[in-house]
Inverse folding.
């Protein structure tokens, strides 16, 4: 058993509300956080700017921005010219789903973790107020962790990787309350699937609706 | 159960001997193959040129070359300035191991498969004459497939993804014999970890040693 004295962790950071809260939690739990963000052919690059602000504000050991090409084969309203729905939640898996996105993000996080000898990866997936994406469920995360420990030196050498999902069972309101306790400045975060050219949120897509409703509820409870 | 009439498959194609043989097998088995290669900060780009030649020669429905950044955090002799060993095989996991590489490659293949509505992914991993990489073993592939079917629309909708590993239990000699039967032109392939500037193989790294010994054995047997 190798001892990881400095408690380093890789934290996936999109610049949204959930990942900002996840980073604050990992930080509070005593991990030295290495944030990982992606440029993946999103419609707008405002996400990366939000991620940089959040990483700076909460404090990270490093912040890697990795370029990957998820637009090469299309298949999502977030990377293609498919229109983002603005009329409330659909049934089933929505068009904003990016094929295998969390699998791809976690795989890169796994490579980063191995390279810096970290054994802990944080991702802000949430199975409660989620948008119907299959890769936001606990059973997916468990299967990823099992696979990760067969894929890597760390796993083979008996010093396994843990995928942490601190938001998994929290409602959006609970996530925001937890973040506010930890001092997260949500004005830095960006959740919108389809922001205007100037970076302001559309206020009508699923992500905006969930966020705005939860923020309103938190404010009304105080 | 949705019927996939055109039998489309995603085939990971590095331009090496194993992936060329895998593509030929998938093609022979009646799949319409969509090849996927990566530019991932390799030392030399000759791999991509080999992949293009092989894809053209065997015949594919499409060939996507995806740019991903595996060099951002280092950790391997294949992407860093670490010297590639030339003195025979080491014990344990060698420095040419790229952290989580097959996990990352398969994750992107999974996204591609979902986007084109394919249910079959081929990868040329091999557990016999392999170089000690943990992500070349059957148990890793099985765990990946389990995870993939929890991660994706296809899996959730009961029409699962299969990860095919036709070379898993073959020796290098058996792989080459199978490829020759299928008409693979191995002069197009590129296996070397550290080719010279002009693209010729070093003939001394692990990959060259395994390849050259197997080719010599096949020739001597004929």
């Amino acid at each position: 058993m190798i001892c990881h004295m400095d408690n380093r962790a890789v934290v996936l950071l999109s610049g949204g509300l959930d990942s900002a809260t996840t980073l604050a939690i990992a930080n509070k739990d005593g991990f030295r956080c290495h944030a990982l963000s992606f440029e993946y052919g999103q419609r707008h690059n405002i996400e990366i700017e939000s991620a940089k602000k959040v990483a700076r504000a909460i404090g990270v050991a490093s912040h890697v921005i990795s370029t990957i090409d998820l637009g090469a084969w299309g298949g999502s309203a977030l990377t293609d010219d498919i229109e983002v729905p603005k009329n409330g939640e659909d049934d089933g898996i929505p068009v904003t789903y990016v094929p295998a996105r969390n699998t791809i993000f976690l795989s890169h996080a796994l490579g980063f973790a191995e390279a810096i000898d970290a054994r802990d990866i944080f991702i802000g997936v949430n199975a409660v107020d989620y948008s119907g994406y299959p890769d936001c469920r606990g059973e997916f995360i468990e299967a990823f962790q099992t696979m990760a420990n067969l894929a890597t030196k760390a796993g083979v050498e008996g010093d396994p990787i843990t995928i942490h999902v601190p938001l998994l069972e929290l409602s959006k309101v609970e996530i925001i309350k937890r973040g506010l306790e930890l001092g997260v400045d949500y004005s830095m975060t960006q959740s919108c699937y389809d922001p205007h050219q100037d970076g302001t949120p559309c206020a009508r897509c699923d992500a905006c609706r969930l966020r705005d409703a939860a923020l309103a509820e938190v404010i009304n409870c105080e």
In short: Chain B touches chain A through 46 residues (CB under 8 Å). Strands of chain B lie at 8-12, 32-39, 62-67, 120-122, 162-164. Residues 101-116 of chain B form the longest helix (16 residues). Chain B is about 40% helix and 10% strand.
